[in-house]
Amino acid sequence: MDPLGVTPVVLLACGSFNPITNMHLRMFELARDHLEDSGRYRVVKGIISPVGDGYKKKGLIEACHRLQMARLATENSDWITVDSWESLQSEWVETAKVIRHHYEELLAAQADSNDVDTVKHTKKRRMDENYFESSSHQKRRDGPQLMLLCGADVLESFGVPNLWRQEDITEIVGRYGLACITRSGCDPHKFIHQSDVLWRHRKNIHIIHEWVANEISATHVRRALRRGRSVRYLLPDAVLQYIQECDLYSDVSEQKNADVVLAPLQRYTGGSSS
Length: 274
Ligand SMILES: Nc1ncnc2c1ncn2[C@@H]1O[C@H](COP(=O)(O)OP(=O)(O)OP(=O)(O)O)[C@@H](O)[C@H]1O
Ligand SMILES: NC(=O)c1ccc[n+]([C@@H]2O[C@H](COP(=O)(O)O)[C@@H](O)[C@H]2O)c1
Ligand SMILES: [Zn+2]
Known about the structure:
Elements: E1 7-15, H1 22-37, E2 41-50, H2 63-73, E3 80-82, H3 85-88, H4 95-117, H5 120-130, E4 145-151, H6 152-156, H7 166-176, E5 178-181, H8 188-194, H9 196-200, E6 205-208, H10 218-226, H11 237-246, H12 251-254, H13 263-269
Helix pairs in contact: 2-11, 4-7
Bound molecules: adenosine-5'-triphosphate, beta-nicotinamide ribose monophosphate and zinc ion.
């Protein structure tokens, strides 16, 4: 928190990005405006973290292509970045673990910058003083806050049996916080009202209303591409060019993982791929 009580925030978006669309990029802009408009936050960075191939979602093409498309989509942004850590893991990684990883990176980066102008013992004392808690994932008074950025469908997926561990949901909304963009067909306020844990942490959940309803979805983009229909202006030109050059989406790619159980469902139900 700075002297005026404004907390720096880093927004982390996890998802398939198969492929990245203009709406994924809009999410960041909408969230930044909303959070900064409150007068309580200053959004300093956005991170896109494409899920790894181990997620096993139907039609999920290789992470290297999804990463490259995300990089092309963000090359003109001065604050949205792409991170490959999650997608490079050999197995699917729970979102809570991905958030923890990025929070630790933020703390390490901050400790490095403190190193530059502070003698070691002073820095150590300051770090000790600045921890709110003594648990393994501490919150620091002067450090940036990391928030998960998602669409309301992801928030509502918290209610799908065997998809999320309860302790992960509690950690995400309790310790970090959520910036959630409304999506047609979803009612995040009602969903929060009906969940005790989300209700308890409602002050950490920022619902951001998208007044210019935008129905772009990666599923729609893949479908249109398979049918040879134009997807121009639904995603950045550079991404479209890359898709065409590498011939990425086809009937065959859409069948990837068609007979495989989604990784979280496999992990929490002990289900197996057939
Ligand atoms: N039109 C949209 N409005 C609000 N949130 C969105 C929209 N499109 C994507 N998101 C959000 O973007 C994040 C990444 O989602 P994802 O990669 O699944 O995109 P998607 O368009 O939903 O793709 P798919 O159709 O393959 O599920 C999620 O948090 C999702 O809720
Ligand atoms: N238990 C969990 O941590 C859990 C469960 C389901 C999806 N997710 C994440 O949510 C995102 C959802 O992406 P999709 O909407 O493309 O399926 C992915 O990043 C995925 O890893 C996390
Ligand atoms: Zn989705």
